[in-house]
Amino acid sequence: MPPERRRRVRPDRKTQVRPDRRAGARWGGPPRKAAPSCQRKSLAWPRAAAAAISVAAEEEERLRRRNRLTLEADKPAVERRLEELVFGDLEDDEDALLRRLRVPRVQVQEDSDDSEVEKEAKDNFLPQKKPVWLDEEDEDEEMVDMMNNRFRKDMMKNASENQLSKDELQKRLKEEFQHAMGGVPAWAEANKWKTPSDDESEEDEEDLLQRTGNFISTSTSLPKGILKMKNCQHANAERPTTARVSSVQFHPRAQVVMVAGLDNAVSLFQVDGKTNPKIQSIYLEKFPIFKACFSANGEEVLATSTHSKILYVYDMLAGKLIPVHQVRGLKEKIVRSFEVAPDGSFLLINGVAGYLHLLSMKTKELIGSMKINGRIAASTFSSDSKKVYASSGDGDVYVWDVNSRKCLNRFVDEGSLYGLSIATSRNGQYVACGSNCGVVNIYNQDSCLQETNPKPIKAVMNLVTGVTSLTFNPTTEILAIASANMKEAVRLVHLPSFTVFSNFPVVKKKNISLIHTMDFSPRSGYFALGNEKGKALMYRLHHYPDF
Fold this sequence. Notes:
Elements: H1 3-6, H2 45-74, H3 77-87, H4 94-102, H5 116-124, H6 136-139, E1 143-145, H7 150-153, E2 163-165, H8 166-181, H9 198-209, E3 229-231, E4 245-250, E5 256-261, E6 265-270, E7 278-283, E8 289-294, E9 300-305, E10 311-315, E11 320-324, E12 338-340, E13 346-350, E14 355-360, E15 366-371, E16 376-381, E17 387-392, E18 396-401, E19 407-412, E20 419-424, E21 430-435, E22 440-444, H10 445-450, E23 458-460, E24 469-472, E25 478-482, E26 490-494, E27 499-500, E28 515-520, E29 526-531, E30 536-541
Antiparallel strand pairs: 1-2, 3-30, 4-5, 5-6, 6-7, 8-9, 9-10, 10-11, 12-13, 13-14, 14-15, 16-17, 17-18, 18-19, 20-21, 21-22, 22-23, 24-25, 25-26, 26-27, 28-29, 29-30
């Protein structure tokens, strides 16, 4: 090999620049001059690529048609017909289907010339389906038994109506409803419904949407039928006793209840409905309490005994117990039953031989006495403290004026042979009289002042023994009646419907026993009863939100 060829340096492959063959460059020589475009040769590979694409497309189209024909052969004739109706006959051109789907949908509006009456007529004349089968027993008129149901039994007009058809029973129920409502109410008459115009309804809707608030409100009056209530812890649970509870009363201003009985004690409890913690107990030695009562302002507690003429006064603010041994001018040997005026100005003591003694509440001095014929069974003040109602043992009721101490009227309690209790409502509307035969007559107070033989608004006959306790609630919506001569003999009467609440008492539980005293809280939220077993039962009335 010649020395000059060995010494030749080999060029670097990384930095070596390859000549442009399209420009006619050669290795180791100058570039060749490019030929003009008119002299260029057309390359063969674009034509081959186009031909290959065309063949592939035709093959794909052939396969697609073959698959479609295979699927069409498997489809039922109904399905193929449905597709032709929806998409059209587009076997040869699927692109037409795509073009059709791209066209915006046009909403077809119904002919506005058709009136609403015509449209309704078209709807009414739709073909109606016939029943598949008929049951012969359905055609027979079903009869309803009227004798074995105590509610339907009251709707019978005669003894022959022991069974009624459903249509006749429905007519009878409508008659009973109209009789109770005093006719057909306005809301039940179809011809009195008014159809507001579209403009008025739109204005009402706009006005409703522009305001916020609670549009659903409940009625403030107490409904009849069922009284929603809950059994609470006994009021005197923290001081249990077996002696009879003779008095139970709620404080007029504080959430406190007083319980007194034959165990010589007066106890105060805070009312919370759960534990009712004891606040204080006042023990009176050898003084079985016949009656205990708060003063009108709630600052004092007055108590009398079963066999003493002493009147005890407990000052709650000072914490002092003051015995009133003798009232000047009062010659009674025993002081037992008394009443406190609602305005707190007077104290009324029921004496013997038909005497009523009126005392000043402030000084406990005698103001005057009133005399009735026979024995005094019960007495009470009117709601305005201006009149006194006294029930005698012969069934008569006397009405006295407090200021002049004159008898305003004397009327006969209808059907009563022997009066036992009397009560007046807080709103001055009703007077309730209880007799020894278990009847409670409810009168209007105006008729008691003007008539000698007034007719009661309602005679409640749900008790069969002597009515010994009567109490109106502060809202004059409930009248509590009770008898101490029979267990579970207590009822709550709804006013002004004069119907008894059906869910009280719960007869199956038998936990009320003999009731001797009752009271409602100042806002009717609680109801308390005292029985002979030493328990002060207490219930929460859910209709009233406050104590």
